[in-house]
Amino acid sequence: MKRDIVIIGAGPAGIFTALELIKKGSKRQITIVEKGSPIEKRACPKSKTQKCVSCKPYCHITTGFSGAGAFSDGKLSLCAEVGGDLPNVVGYDVVEDTIKYTDSIYLEFGADEHIEGISNPEEVKEIRKRAIQAGLKLVDCPIRHLGTEKAQDIYLAIEKYLEANGVELIFGRECVNLILDNGRCCGVIVDGKNGSEEMLANDVIVATGRRGADWFEKLCSEHGVAHQPGTVDIGVRVEVRNEVLETVNKVLYESKLIGYPKPFKNKVRTFCQNPGGFVSQENYDNDLAVVNGHSYKELKSNNTNLAILCSHNFSIPFNRPIAYAQKVGELTNMLADGHILVQRFGDILDGKRTWPKELSQSNLRPTLPDAVAGDITAAMPYRAMTNIINFIQAMDHVVPGFASVETLLYSPELKFYSNRVKMDENLNTNIAGLYCLGDSSGWTRGLMMASVMGVLMGRKLLREEKEKDGGNIRDLGPIIIH
């Protein structure tokens, strides 16, 4: 059976493509193929085992309906300056307007109406002043915090809505290849328990998220999908006591600071701040363990964690940035015997490893109890480590106490955005019938921007449906891609 639309990956980009089509009265048959499980069947056993058990065939935190979003801290960034480079493709004003529309859909499905970071403008000015003095840029973006546990409820409601409105959700099937005929994508090949199957479609949308970036990069090379190596982020997750970041947590909730520290002047930024949050472990393919952070609505810790990421761009002759970052992660995992490595900042400056006894004597207790105390600098590239150290010391001018001896650094924190698919302002790739959305496209980072890209994809398909069939498609909303 030939489908109208096949979406590979049930993350925010794919979900919001389907939502927009349904909400505006599309008559096209939509199929979403997801190699993971429905959200109600996703569960991390670590809450019972107290340690990561490396679930097979995939990590439930990163794979399944709503992707990594279901187990993330659940923050929606409500400005076009945050979340990737989609404004460079479709225009800043288009993204700004579509963020407002997309946010209204999240509210419809139960998101908290409270917005962080907009109630204390004078205190924001003071934080920005200190950032300027430290040579950093503050991006004060309003945040709607879903919360890790509440995000799961919201995405469950969306899943049931899609099912109730005729979207075919196929779980436990993995896309392994594209089907091309005379330069046009006309379907996909999926694997499952009963073997491979060809699934034909008029339009194929790849929305496999950050986890699928490496897989899709290989398909692009195989099938001639125009793309270029993009940025890969290598860094650490930093954890401090809540008292250290108390003012920033209260005023902004999430501080988004950007710097270009000497001597290398790579872009270094903070990302995914979790007040009262918990450091977590995620497992990628080939047993790669990476660190992340969660922030719940109700359950709180005494600590705040955030990522500090150093951006790397590669060109001639090297063009495999994802593989490079994976090697850094594998080396770090090796030192930690397959776990996450943790080290005190003061020990890094003193040129020594951290010992478990030193962690137990600190004011700051790790919220990732099975992290292994050791030496991050034995695995982290010199350039990245130098950038991170200098950035942390600059942040200490903005947030006194941030660069204290007992500040914890967890490694590896890796963000794979390398495969930047070339597309025009209408989201067309060089292969007819093939589209790529969300973090796997290289153009977005995070829940909101991936969701926005899905909305825009839905509107593009609606416009084509209306022009072709003359059907009664309801109002397409404030943004139509021309």
Q: Please, could you describe this protein's structure?
A:
The chain has 482 residues and is of the alpha+beta class. The chain is built from 13 helices and 21 strands. It has helices spanning 12-23, 46-49, 87-90, 92-108, 121-133, 148-164, 213-223, 246-251, 321-335, 345-350, 356-360, 382-398, 447-469, and strands spanning 3-8, 30-34, 75-77, 137-139, 143-145, 168-171, 174-181, 184-192, 195-206, 227-229, 231-241, 256-259, 268-274, 278-284, 288-294, 303-313, 341-344, 372-373, 408-416, 419-421, 434-436. The strands form 5 sheets. Strands 4-12-13-16-11-19-17-18 form an 8-stranded mixed β-sheet. A hairpin with a 2-residue loop joins β8 (184-192) and β9 (195-206). The radius of gyration is 22 Å and the shape is globular. Mean pLDDT is 92; it is low at 478-482.
